[in-house]
Amino acid sequence: MLYSSCRHLLSSFPMAASKPHRLHQIVGASLLSSSKKPRTMATDSTMKQEFTKYADYLNELNDKRERVVKASRDVTINSKKVIFQVHRISKDNKEEVLAKAENDLAAVTDQYISRLVKELQGTDFWKLRRAYTFAVQEYVEAATLCRFCKTGTLLNLAEINASLLPLSDQSVEPLQINVLDYLLGLADLTGELMRLAIGRISDGEVEYAEKICQFVRDIYRELTLVVPRMDDNSEMKKKMETMLQSVVKIENACFSVHVRGSEYNPLLGSSDPDYSIFGIIMQFL
Which structural domains are found in the chain, ordered by start? Predict the structure, then answer.
């Protein structure tokens, strides 16, 4: 009796152990069958549509970048022409030269900046910033140089952006020059003012050169307070070093004229071909 009951208990263990094993086989078979489920046509079509949409977006962005690069090249070239025109200024033709420079700058705005604005308005123009930043900096440099030569004041960022608003479609977000591009263009302005100051000294306009010197000093002093607080200031740091060199060159030129004024003043603005007396000034050109 005891033997038969023990045999019955022992025979029941394999059956109990086989149930989890069978359950595992059933679950594994169901998972395997589900993993081998073929894709439907609807899934393939949806993925193809998504990839097509992304491809079209990238192609459009690349085409826009090419157009922006071409427009930026035109802005850069013609802005440089405005700067060259300003450097033709002298005490005899100041109004005439500045009037032509302002007309040229207006043409740059209407013909070339307008193309740039139309390409970038209403889009994420920050994605294409590297394609147009140098053109904007050159334009800022030309515009601020014209303003200083005419009024002796600085053209600020709000005024530049306000002049761009009429070029934009009112129904979309307009292109606005950001602070970094404006400051980079302003840093380049100091180099042009240094050349202008040296030229004015050689033409006898020492007071005008001193005015330029004070203006460049003020810009440099203000930027030394701003640049350390900027997040992305690697470009500005390089230009700050160049700006300091421009300030020093203007100061040295003005200082040399004051110290040796008795030698310089009789020949300032003279057409005498002997320019040996201008050795100290010419070293700053």
Answer: 60-177 (1.20.58.190), 179-285 (1.20.58.200)
Neighbouring C-alpha atoms within 13 Å toward the C-beta of 190:
29
C-alpha span between 147 and 98 (Å, rounded) = 9
pTM above 0.70, yes or no: yes
Start-end of H helices in 87-205: 94-108, 114-120, 129-151, 157-164, 179-202
Give the tokens for residue 44.
């393939």
Q: What percent of the chain has pLDDT above 90?
A: 46
> What backbone phi and psi angles, to 5 degrees, belong to 89?
-65, 145
Examine the pLDDT at 160 and tell me if it is beyond 50.
yes
Over the stretch 105-151, which tens digit does the pLDDT of each residue have?
A: 999 999 999 999 888 877 677 788 889 999 999 999 999 999 999 99
In contact, 211 and 153? CB cutoff 8 Å: no
Six-digit token pair at 119? 């390409």
CB 131 within 8 A of CB 71: no
241: which 2 tokens? Answer: 């070093």
CA 189 – CA 191 distance, rounded (Å): 5
Beta-carbon contacts of 167 under 8 Å, excluding residues fewer than 6 positions away, are: 109, 113, 114, 117, 118, 174
**DSSP character for 111?**
I
Give the phi and the psi of residue 259 in degrees, each rounded to 5. Answer: -70, -40
> 145 near 86, Cβ under 8 Å?
yes
Q: Which residue has the tokens 């420079």?
A: 101
Q: Is the pLDDT of residue 76 over 60?
A: yes
